[in-house]
Specification:
The structure holds two protein chains of two kinds.
Chain A (H helix, E strand, L loop, with lengths): L1 H4 L9 E8 L2 E6 H19 L10 H21 L7 H18 L11 H23 L17 H45 L9 H37 L4
Antiparallel strand pairs in A: 1-2
Chain B lengths: L6 H15 L12 H134 L5 H11 L6
Classes of the chains: A mainly alpha, B mainly alpha.
């Protein structure tokens, strides 16, 4: 009973294959890693296996793959504009990966990989490093113009540059914390509301109130489904917007 | 678990349990797992990016491009067929109009020809009738003259006979005729 009531327990990593320790680091193939590869496999199944026949009139699975592709293509094009086609594979991979990992988390007893800050932070780092590296490669030092918005009076420039630099640095943090916190909070809320049901049932006459947290946890489940999809979309959209800076740093 | 107070196990779960379960740490902030998670993330996401950028997305983009090409090709073909059909319809309508005009012309010409023929026939008939009428009138006139001549003779004969009976001797023939002519000078001929 007490173990089931622990809302933090679900975020624990369970080593499936352990490779021992390197210093303080515990190197193990955990259930988290398993879900990551499971997501990759499912995405590959959807986008490669389901489209293998290259049907002009698509079946259901091929339609789904096409819808995802066109959706991400449009999102990237709208946010990042001209020349953004080269980043579609990155945004598509990020969106599908985050979406699948978020949705895996909604399966009972499954593990939400994106509820670990290190995962979301590394994904955000991939985005920011892509922006910085591509920005310098394509525009050289002109990329730094990103921090000096045009039309700012001279005396205000130092302050604006500081603000712009801070806002740029905070991007990977906000990007990763947004996703991580949403998933973490959602799963904790779900666990707590669901935990009230057996707790009330075990408390004799209070069991009469148990449908209330049950109904609430059904509602929160629906909300979490929405959050899972929405956060994947938000991640992809923000990635596109940040990539737009790498493509057009002069605004 | 027959506790009288419900929140007790919950509190215990929230506060005391994690400490004994995983050494006081909050799993997402357990830094000893960061390297391994990053490693698996790099491997899986790298694999995903490779599969997407090299295989999946070119394939899907190819499908969409092929479909677009096929659709626009089909639409072009349809537009071409439509313009051909329009052309055919125009030709047909023109031919129909020509034929109607021609038919109208033929009908008009035929009507005019028939009318003129009828007119000439009527005129010739009228002329014919007029001649015949004139002939008949001439005949009547000559016959009337002949008859009037006969009347003069009969009248003269009768007058001679009457005078002979009354007087006993025959009057002069020329005198009787002169007397007749005097009474009817206008019908003398």
């Amino acid at each position: 009973m007490a173990v089931k009531m622990d809302p933090i327990h679900q975020f624990e990593l369970k080593p499936l294959v352990s490779f021992g320790h390197i210093g303080h680091q515990n190197i193990a193939f955990t259930q988290s890693a398993l879900y990551m590869f499971l997501a990759v496999g499912l995405i590959a199944l959807l986008t490669i296996w389901a489209t293998r026949s290259r049907a002009v009139v698509p079946g259901r699975a091929q339609s789904l793959a096409e819808v995802f592709y066109e959706f991400i293509g449009q999102t990237v094009h709208q946010s990042a504009g001209h020349g953004s086609e080269r980043f579609v594979p990155l945004v598509f991979s990020l969106f599908m990966f985050v979406l699948l990992l978020n949705l895996f988390g909604m399966i009972p007893y499954a593990f939400a990989v994106t509820s670990h800050i290190i995962v979301t932070f590394m994904l955000a780092l991939v985005v920011i490093l892509t922006v910085v590296i591509y920005g310098f490669m394509a525009h050289g030092t002109h990329f730094l113009g990103l921090f000096v918005p045009p039309g700012v009076p001279g005396w205000l420039k130092p302050l604006i540059v500081v603000i712009e630099v801070v806002s740029f640095i905070s991007r990977p943090i906000s990007l990763s914390v947004r996703l991580f916190a949403n998933m973490l909070a959602g799963h904790i809320a779900l666990k707590i509301f669901a935990g009230f049901v057996p707790a009330l049932l075990a408390a004799g006459v209070w069991g009469i109130l148990s449908p209330l947290p049950l109904a609430l946890s059904v509602a929160v489940t629906a909300l979490e489904m929405l959050v899972a999809v929405l956060q994947a979309y938000v991640f992809a959209t923000l990635t596109s917007i940040y990539l737009s800076d790498a493509l057009h740093p002069g605004h | 678990m027959a506790q009288p107070h419900a929140p007790a196990p919950l509190k215990e779960g929230l506060i005391h349990e994690p400490a004994s379960e995983h050494g006081g740490g909050f799993p997402p902030f357990e830094s000893s797992t960061f390297v391994a998670q990053t490693l698996w993330l790099a491997l899986s996401f790298g694999l995903l990016y490779y599969l997407m950028s090299k295989i999946a997305l070119p394939q899907i983009a190819g499908i969409l491009h092929d479909r677009q090409a096929r659709l626009s090709g089909d639409l072009d073909q349809a537009a071409r067929a439509k313009s051909e059909a329009d052309g055919a319809r125009d030709t047909y309508e023109r031919a129909l109009k020509d034929a109607q005009d021609k038919a109208k012309g033929i009908a008009q010409a035929t009507r005019e020809q028939l009318a003129s023929e009828a007119e000439t026939r009527r005129k010739s008939l009228e002329a014919d009738l007029a001649t015949k009428l004139a002939e008949a009138e001439g005949q009547i006139r000559s016959r009337t003259a002949t008859a009037m001549g006969s009347v003069r003779e009969v009248a003269a004969d009768a007058a001679t006979a009457i005078v002979e009976r009354l007087t006993g001797h025959a009057p002069d023939r020329s005198a009787v005729e002169a007397a007749y002519d005097r009474t009817r000078p206008q019908t003398a001929h």
